[in-house]
Here is the input.
Amino acid sequence: MNTHRIRVGIDVGGTFTDAVAVDATTLDLLGQVKIPTSHHHQDGVAHGIVEALDRLLTQTGHAPEDVAFLAHGTTQATNALLEGDVATVGLLGIGTGAGAAFTRRLASLAKLELSPGKRLPLTYTHIADPGDRAAVESAVDTAARGGAQVLVATQPFSVDRPEGEEAVREVAAERGLPMTAAHDITSLYGLHKRSRTAVVNAAILPKMFATADLVDASITKAGVTAPLMVMRCDGGVMSLDEMRRRPLLTVLSGPAAGVAGALMRERVSEGVFLETGGTSTDISVVRRGKVAVRHATLLGRSSYLSALDVRTVGVGGGSMIRIGGGKVTTVGPRSAHIAALPYACFASADDLAGARLATVSPLPEDAADHVVLDAAGGRYALTLTCAANALGRVPEGDFARAGREVARAALAPLAAALGTDVDTAATQVLDAAIAQVRAVVDAMIDDYRLDKDTVQLVGGGGGAAAVTPHLAATTGHEGRIAAHSEVISPIGVALALIREQVERIIPGAGQEDILAVRSEAERAVVAQGAVADAVEVEVTVDPQTSTVRAVATGATELRTQDRAHRADGAERLRLAAAGLKVPEDRVDLLAGTPAYTVYGTEVRRRLRRVRRPVRVVDADGVVRLHARDARVSTTTVAAAQGALAALVGEATAYGDGGVRAPALRLLIGSRIADLSGVLDPGALLALARTEMEGRPGDEPVVAIVEERS
Here is the structure.
């Protein structure tokens, strides 16, 4: 019996449930299974989760008690909204006078369209005085008689004064009705958006409750003692109790699982992650070691749901080739899967005997310009994967690998129709497909101001080899396919950290306000099972909107560092030089801690000042931080207060836009404390002090300071 502890990630998709076991120490993939998702079982998807876990333990030789971490991602919430499988919501608006006018308008949320012709089922009841117990009881009972299966209480300014919504919650609990209070969803102002987000959350609450209870009971019965975690849409995981409170956070979590895998397994610090399936490619950004997140659009309206910024292009491994006027016009969005046709490159040479090119309409409403082959073995689709294999873009052992000679035979009729050779025809296909993907990638690089000199393109998903290698060759960016790309999503689930985000609108926020928001986020992840010593908190203060935001992440156990591979000084130097794009003899060793080594160089350009780019390399040989132009200084915890005050003072900018402290990052122990989101020098130094509390006075601290342009 294997005695190593494992982390288990399970990704519940619409068709299949994928599960992986990852060594908790080395993070090596130990096993993977794929089973059909059990939508129609009496226990629903919970049955498939337990079955996948059982097969995984058998395959890897582990016992249930060896599971140190167990998390699952699910499309259930997303599918419930798309399919209109939601509960009737009883919306209880609270307020008198002008406030009553605003809340009564919320009855219009009954017009929210879930799918064409199907609206969100909602009833509205008003409460003038939430302090009147009898009035609250009457409103709750009225909503229940109207068919409400779940309640939402909302009141203007409840983020500051939640007592009214809490009064409704008390009565709802007595009646056994699940409820969402609008202030639970967000602490940001905006009654209509806050209420709309709460209503959508409540609509999926009963269904998610039932699944959560079944999964929890099944996992416990199986003998797993590790607490069950659930994937969030922002790339982290949350406890089951937190999911019961805010199931909406699981919406759009599918793409988040893949980028979490790229972030944790591939250790991407600056780049674009492309998860390619058979039909489409989801594109997301990792900037300075963090996923890019924004408020999501739900049911066609903006919301307060913070989700991964993912942009989807209708190009995947199975995308069909389209021709016209003697050339390839485009690729996709229709795929071989939609047309119910096999890929030509996965046929045998005998099956392709006598192949003739034809064009079809995959669906009745489609143009008849999609290329297929009619051959001895039947009809086959010519796909993007066929072109990639014909050019040798798909590496040995890849999920999408096909015999190159068969792929070239499949492309030969297309090449003849285009009046060219196979290589040129395949290149035209890839160029047409990649142009669509590149437009989105370029836009995201610009939107997030990624360092174009260091951007990496990382491909995941079963169709990764059809997109990422050619995109890298076309753009000149470094590109690679993630290890075990076909299961990158469940790997991301297995490796994800507990995450919580706290937002407050605080005009003129002072040091105490900022530290209080930071502390609230830290406490939230610890309450969900994160080890306090492993928690990192990133704080951002937006002076234009007066928003203070703290994002806390933490592991459920202190991860040991006894990896099989440790990069020595020569390897770290080589990696830093590659990242800086200069010869090794031009790279300077600037600082170091037991966990990190800091390298830099100087870039001199005519008529411009000297720029000092910096790279931080960890003990595994991974570049964890990029700085385009930075100053690096080493101090100790005991001396840090004075040293940082001097550094920040020297680099703070004063102008018409106000005071702008530099972007500061600290290397302390195994953590990179990112304090770059704070512009006020006093608040910045207060946060830095918080990061060093309780640490030995002689512990080294490396400060990386970037002046703001």
User: Anything to note?
Assistant: The mean pLDDT is 89. The two ends are 58 Å apart (CA to CA).
